[in-house]
Amino acid sequence: MVANGHHWDPKYPEYEGKFTGKFLHSHDFKGVTNEWKGKDILVIGAGNSACDVAVESARVANSVKLSMRSPQWFFPKFLFGMPSDVFAAKTPNWIPSIIKQFALSKLIYILQGSYKNYGLPENKI
Fold first, then answer.
1. Residue 4's closest CA among 30, 24, 32?
2. Where are the domains of the chain?
């Protein structure tokens, strides 16, 4: 599964050697089917589409690996009972963005713990 490039301009990686599996871009992903059942899946990318595909395919696949160029911050959908984007938007405008980002990343670390707990590389705070 490849989830890089924009929906209208999918980009496919080139690998040395012979890959006998199936390539699919998130643009063409319509949901998991029996074809995904018991498979080992590699999702390349870490944006919204990649994470959506990884979660959906994890329901039926044997294993799902998420490959990303650099560590990302994964926010939960809800923080303190409200959508995380709404929670983040409620921070006062007078606080500089760099301070907001630092505070939110610390909060996520406190709530979710180390990314190593999930088999992911540690992100820098």
1. 24
2. 1-69, 78-118
Long-range contacts of 21-29 (CB under 8 A, 24+ apart): 25/1, 26/1, 26/2, 26/50, 26/52, 26/53, 29/1, 29/53
Token couple for 76: 């939960």
Q: What is the pLDDT of residues 15-49, one digit of tens each?
A: 677 777 888 888 888 888 888 899 999 998 888 88
Q: Are 84 and 108 spatial neighbours (Cβ–Cβ below 8 Å)? A: no
Closest alpha carbon to 45 in 9, 74, 69, 15: 69
Q: Indicate the pTM of the whole model.
A: 0.67
**SS3 of 64, please?**
strand
Q: How far apart are CA 63 and CA 92, in angstroms?
A: 42
